């Protein structure tokens, strides 16, 4: 077969014009009812297991809230105040660090310093045993002033530290924390030196002192739940989504028109609000404050609390704080008190090595092994 015959045999025979018109009209007639049917058909009902899963999540939250509400009435004063109360206070301060590190990518070691500013403000502007320094303001005004000062200091720290990344941010915030420690220790006019402030008066409302175990637990629980809910809401808001974008790729977010520096500074201010609330509770819990409260050990302890529980989950710092407080109170029964830091350091290293996402990471991994269907 010649090449011309081969091309003629394999070429597509053109369809006559009247046949093409018939096929076109038939296809249009076929398409019309299909479009009408699609428009008239109601949207399909979502049969995915999201709704049952959401119902189970709401049920779990309700069970946890009921258990927390009943806890002080079934636990002793020691477990209500020394364990649960202290864990809630440290958890609130740790939450401020977890918000910055987990959602903003900024590991700040100055969150205890910010909390200490609020605590010192309560002691200076409120009532304490150091009558020549404390001004004796009403407790609510002193507490409000402390929180406002904490936000201002956190914003200033953010303005200094947000232009750096990684280890440089850690070193700058650590240097700020250590500088504040020596300032409080050496200044006797405002901070009363190494002695600090003792017998800081906690609020008394209706004849009930908020430093009593049960009232203090409920106050700390209410503020802790409020801080937790605020973080959960904010990370889903446009600001929180943009902040996470800055964490993942600051250069791309800047190219899209976002002000990276403003978002980071605003995150420090919000974290300062949370840390300030925790600082007010801390000075009420201890009934005083001293430079040791904001020393280098305290700065590192907040980092340990946040890492133990998991920085990527708002509930993580509270879990880490509970574990930290339990080890702090009961580890001395197994080892010497001087070796407590060795136990905490060992637990910290194990968590970092085997679960960078903290104890919650281990929990989710275990759930994934036991129930593969729930593994995400």
Give a structural overview.
The protein is mostly helical. It has a domain at 83-295. The chain is 71% helix and 2% strand. A two-stranded antiparallel ribbon has the order 1-4. Strand 2 and strand 3 (208-209) form a beta hairpin. It is globular and about 55 Å long. Residues 1-13 and 15-48 have low confidence and may be disordered.
Give the strand tally.
4
Residue-averaged pLDDT: 83
User: What structural class do you assign from the helix and strand content?
Assistant: mainly alpha
Contiguous helical run count: 15
Task: Give the neighbour order of strands across the main sheet.
Answer: 1-4
Model regions low in confidence, pLDDT < 50 over at least 5 residues: 1-13, 15-48
Cα gyration radius (Å) = 30 Å
What are the secondary-structure elements, in order, as H or E?
A: HHHHHHHEEEHHHHEHHHH
- Amino-to-carboxy terminus distance: 63 Å
Instruction: Estimate percent helicity.
Output: over 70%
- What spatial form do the alpha-carbon principal axes imply? globular
The description of the largest β-sheet is:
2 strands, antiparallel
- What percent of residues are in strands? under 5%
Describe the structure concisely for a colleague.
This protein has 376 residues and is mainly alpha-helical. It contains 15 helices and four strands. The protein has a domain at 83-295.
